[in-house]
Design goal:
Elements: H1 2-21, H2 31-39, H3 47-57, E1 62-65, H4 72-85, E2 98-101, H5 105-122, E3 128-130, H6 137-144, E4 150-153, H7 155-163, H8 169-175, E5 178-182, H9 184-187, H10 193-199, E6 208-213, E7 222-225
Parallel strand pairs: 1-6, 1-7, 2-4, 2-5, 3-4, 5-6
The structure holds adenosine-5'-triphosphate.
Length: 228
């Protein structure tokens, strides 16, 4: 038993070392994103990025747990954008391809700014929309007309769009390919339960789910523990 624990611990150390030594290129990151990272002055993946990016690129559902400031946002944004670079132009586009749900408007703005800067640096054409609950129904409708590739929002705002018929449940079921819950521990806590439940029944089984958190413990996904 003690020997097994020791082996596991050595294995974890080796895995940690490997993750630390890898470059973004070795993780499989696209050349456009590599150039964007270079321009942003980001040279090497953080440990959580080293482990999460290849798994997300493989299409796995992932729960990533790493402390605040460890780079979880890029850990999901890089593979998400890379996936969107290769989406067929002629795909049926009824609703957003990817949802990034966050607990607060402030975080939603931060994520939106990060996505826009990457998209701009990569010089790709992707429609990225950020919604917030203070927007009027007409503004929400206008933002979602010609569905975005990425929708960044709080669950409360998504629930409002669903109940107001601005987002159609059937369209989400047909179009959604990636769902990110950033700060998943907060999103899955009591305060957001109703809004999350309004949305989750429409997430198709084929949708890749990425749960990012500083403190969560989930069991139904491929779980990554932080090395930080
Ligand atoms: N590989 C990297 N090298 C250097 N800086 C990085 C790297 N990845 C991310 N950063 C920067 O580190 C900072 C923190 O990253 P980020 O906000 O993604 O952390 P986080 O784990 O999501 O934190 P939180 O739990 O608060 O959401 C940001 O300024 C980001 O640009």
């Amino acid at each position: 038993m003690a020997e097994t624990k020791l082996k596991e611990s050595i294995g974890e150390e080796e895995e940690k070392k490997e993750a630390e030594d890898q470059s973004f290129e070795e993780l499989g990151v696209d050349a456009r994103l590599l150039r964007a990272l270079h321009k942003k002055g980001i040279a090497k993946p953080t440990p959580i990025q080293g482990v999460a990016i290849p798994l997300i690129l493989e299409g796995k559902d992932v729960v990533a747990r790493a402390k605040t400031g460890s780079g979880k946002t890029l850990a999901y944004l890089l593979p998400l954008l890379q996936k969107l670079f290769t989406v067929r132009a002629d795909r049926k586009k009824l609703a957003p391809n990817a949802f990034v749900l966050v607990p607060t408007r402030e975080l939603s703005q931060q994520v939106y700014a990060e996505v826009l800067s990457l998209v701009e640096l990569c010089r790709v054409k992707l429609k990225v929309v950020q919604l917030n609950s203070n927007m009027l129904a007409n503004d929400l409708r206008a933002a979602l007309a010609g569905p975005p590739d990425i929708l960044i929002s709080t669950p409360t705002c998504v629930a409002k769009c669903l109940s107001g018929g601005i987002l159609k449940a059937e369209s989400i079921s047909e179009s959604l390919e990636t769902l990110v819950l950033d700060e998943a521990d907060l999103l899955l806590s009591y305060g957001y339960e109703k809004d999350i439940k309004a949305f989750t029944p429409h997430v198709p089984r084929s949708c890749q789910c990425l749960l990012m958190s500083a403190t969560s413990s989930f069991t139904h996904f491929h779980t990554i523990n932080s090395f930080t």
